[in-house]
Amino acid sequence: MKSKRNSRSKQAAILERLSDVTSAEVDYVWPGRIPRGKLTIIVGEPGVGKSFLTLDIAARVSSGRKWPDASVADRGRVIHLSAEDGLADTIKPRIDAMKGNSRGVFSLRGIATATGDQFFSLSRHLRSLREAIRLKHAAVVIIDPLSAFLGTNVDSYKDADVRNVLGPVSQLAEDERVAIIAVMHLTKDVTRAVIHRALGSVAFVAAPRAVFLLAKHPGDDAVRVLAPMKFNLGVPPCSLAFRIKRDRVKWTKEPVTLGADQIVKGGADLENRSAIEEATHFLQQALVDKPMLAAEVIQSAKSNGIAEATLRRAKNALGITSRHSGYGGSGSWAWELPKKKS
Q1: How does pLDDT run across 155-194, given as a tens digit for each residue?
Q2: What share of the chain has pLDDT > 90, as a percent?
Q3: CATH topology of domain 270-336
Q4: Residue partners of 61: CB distance under 8 A and separation at least 6
Q5: In the chain, what percentage of residues exceed pLDDT 70?
Q6: How far apart are CA 105 and CA 108, in angstroms?
Q7: Phi and psi dihedrals of 31, rounded to 5?
């Protein structure tokens, strides 16, 4: 019988000399936002449109359409995992409505085994996912929601359990040069910083390189804002906004200057009636004679101690319209008071 000492002596550290490593820049599926070869997580409260957002991403990748910020999406295939939406009545119709290429989107429905079909689990079936990625030459994998596919023996509130699952998932993304996008729910504890409000262990936001918040705009409940919560790959991208119209996502061109924490905290600020009244009076005075560039209005309001979230709520209350002039990134938005009826 071999001694324990001899058994331990067979273990050896795996070292790699940095001089043997070829430096490489970060590659992106969505330039500056969704990295290839990394795990990205999108968090948000139930009902804000996380599934709409991920299907919009799938539609753009599968068809090679431009991204909302006008950058070009390289056409590729998508593997989609959903535990909540039906294929025939929800996912397929939305992909079609979003002008995606349904031939390039594959739903992972389960794992076939000798004893029967099994529900897919990241903790047990990662090798099968790797094989599927290779078979379909997938560029993106979407997991919606992440919690449904962790595995029955994984405690989502234990750091060790979560890291034991997400570590191999991140390694899979790197090995196969695929962007893995996972959806998570947000807790309702508004007293905590938004980065700590992902439902479950803090490891959920520690493991991925990019984490985004999807939330209602504090100034307009019909608008959804995608804001970076964590971005370890470079300069964080700006926030973007969209509206959901029927089965489509309609992105707005007007820039959003709110960050993730500002969006979450802005909702509470809006309850302050006096702040709304102050912002309303400010806008009436600023726009009384002529339209004004939106960026200038927002900056002037900030100088007067008015939060952007409060300003936008007052803008909607007054019926102020936004007009765009120019083309692409060189254009600008102006705000104008509604015309008085004669």
Answers
A1: 887 888 889 999 999 999 999 999 999 999 876 655 555 6
A2: 48
A3: Arc Repressor Mutant, subunit A (1.10.10)
A4: 29, 73, 74, 75, 76, 77, 78, 104, 139, 140
A5: 87
A6: 10
A7: -50, 125
pTM equals 0.74
Burial 14-48 (b: 16+ CB within 10 A, else e): eeeeeeeeeeeeeebbbbbbbbbbbbbbbbbbeeb
Quick one: pLDDT at residue 273?
55
pLDDT of residue 189: 55
CA angle 233, 235, 293 (to 5 degrees): 150
Question: Which amino acid makes up residue 241?
Answer: A
Confidence of residue 243 (pLDDT cuts 50, 70, 90): very high
DSSP per position, 183-236 = EEEB-S-TTS-GGG-BSS-THHHHSSSEEEEEEEETTEEEEEEEEEEEETTSSP
Neighbours of 157 (CB within 10 A): 12
- The residues of the chain that CATH labels 3.40.50.300 are 17-258
**Mean pLDDT over residues 274-298, rounded?**
84
- Three-state secondary structure string covering 93-142: HHHHHCCCCHHHEEECCCEEECCEEECCCCCCCHHHHHHHHHHHCEEEEE
Note if the bond before 68 is cis, omega within 30 degrees. Answer: no
Residues of the chain with CATH 1.10.10.10: 270-336
| CA–CA gap between residue 43 and residue 100 (Å, rounded) | 23
Cβ atoms within 10 Å of 49's Cβ, excluding its own: 19
Q: Which amino acid is at 68?
A: P
Residues 58 and 80 sit within 8 Å (Cβ to Cβ): yes
The CATH number of 17-258 is 3.40.50.300
b/e code 172-194 from CB counts within 10 Å (16+ = b): bbeebebbbbbbbbbeeeeeeeb
For the segment 56-67, the average pLDDT, to the nearest whole number, is 96
- What single-letter DSSP state applies at residue 314? H
